[in-house]
Amino acid sequence: MQVEGPDTNFVSDLALGSKKRRLSKTSVQEDDHTNVVSEVNKNKKKKKAKPMTCTLLKSVVEKGIGIKDVRDMTQYLLQAENNSPKWIEICNRSSLQKMIVLFIPGLQPDDFENGKNTFNEISDDNFKYIPGEIASTFHTFPVMAPGSKMTLFSPYNSFINVGLSKMEKINRLKELQKKKKITINDLVLSEQQLVANDYPLDSGDTNFDTDWVQTVDFTHGGSHIFALDCEMCLSEQGLVLTRISLVNFDNEVIYEELVKPDVPIVDYLTRYSGITEEKLTVGAKKTLREVQKDLLKIISRSDILIGHSLQNDLKVMKLKHPLVVDTAIIYHHKAGDPFKPSLKYLSETFLNKSIQNGEHDSVEDARACLELTKLKILNGLAFGIGINTENLFTKLHRFEVKTVLLNDMIIKNHTEDDSKGQLIRCVEDDETWTHIHENLNKDVKLIVGRIKNLERSRNYNKKPRKETPSLDASMVLHDIGQHLTQLYENATPGTMILIMSGTGDTRPWNNLSTELEFIQDKKERLDKRREREPEIVEAIKLARGGVASFTVK
């Protein structure tokens, strides 16, 4: 039996009182401690983060680094990769606020102070066209373009594609192989793909003038799958249709016409189209309107058209059709998006056929598209798809890195914009600079662009299809210098600006490769290549010797 008397209660009260007093005292001490810790934390927060520093390691850099190394450094700086680069010492990478990467092909050694004949060592000889105080913050070093002694690959492609691990490759292949047997219907572009690739659609769009037609449903015998290719010439209003070829699924030519243009031709683009003034004058019997009427009697709306970047052919034909297989989409460019493989490359790689040697033939091109499609059906969805690399921007988006890519390869009038990245088409340098300046102080971590006027002014690029106004290299260089200066001045502290030529002087190699491309016979071309190997080796060596220069504000 428990006896509860006054003594027991008194003892309890004493004990509780003592405990209360202890708790009260402890509570005061803890409050004091919390306040002290809080003050310390406040003081810590007031301390500025240490700025990021980057130090080139001379002994490693001068042994040779490539575009891949610069790309891996970019991933490391943006915390999408934890393996630190061996050629540059980076401290406090978390202080990086923004990174701007600019490819400027056409840069030469004499564009830098005390320029030498080649880029082969780390240098304090900075870009001449930036004011001294800012120029002195830049660090210049050699970077090799990808390739071998006999080949030159795209430095830009190398930068924007990241190699996958063995396990990542296996997983990607498994995903693609889930559906082993496919039909042509599995290759038809979805409506979303048609929109993304700028195909003309029957959507009630008022931008289409009255010259446009669209296919309609009707019953017919024979093939319901056709491969189509067109040749075009240049007028003052743009490209116009001058030849069309249509091949059925049995590889038979069922329609072939030279087309009378209704506007004067300013450039026949013979090297690409195979069309000459004489051919059109003698052979062209039908107008575009007559060709459209013929096609609407052959192609039903429920038939499938096959072609390579077929949106361009449909536009010049002013024809809308909903069911399309595009070999530039069902096969991938080795560099990944946003690039598209050329039909010539696909034909040589997968069909072991050499086409477009010297000039194009629309029948030959249509048949190549048909064969590539049949090969894809036979081998499945994984065939012709790149599984060795991943687009750099796709990877960065997984790490919540916001990006802007400015590129002339992006589809015309098409801008992709989501929470993680923007793709913006920029054909001219002015557009590229404008978008860089606009995004300089926005919530974007990486901006990548290409400045192309310098290579145009120095004829580093192969001759374009369309004649461009001549440019003065010194004026282009001053323009580049002014923009880089403005970027540096307006950027927030912690911004890295990196410029790269990508390549060295490509002109000798461009001249040689153009000569070789014009040799139509494959054996003769290979023999000539062997004969001129010493020249090729020297030209490639010069072309691979590029330069990079960076600053961190």
UniProtKB/TrEMBL annotation:
Keywords per UniProt: Exonuclease, Hydrolase, Nuclease, Nucleus, rRNA processing
Keyword rRNA processing listed: yes
Compartmental location: Nucleus
GO molecular function: exonuclease activity; nucleic acid binding
The keyword rRNA processing is assigned to this record: yes
Domain Exonuclease: 224-382
Pfam families, per the entry: RNase_T (PF00929)
Gene Ontology biological process terms in this record: rRNA processing
GO cellular component: nucleus
Family: Belongs to the REXO1/REXO3 family.
Name of the protein described by the UniProt record: Ribonuclease H
Gene name, Swiss-Prot/TrEMBL: RNH70
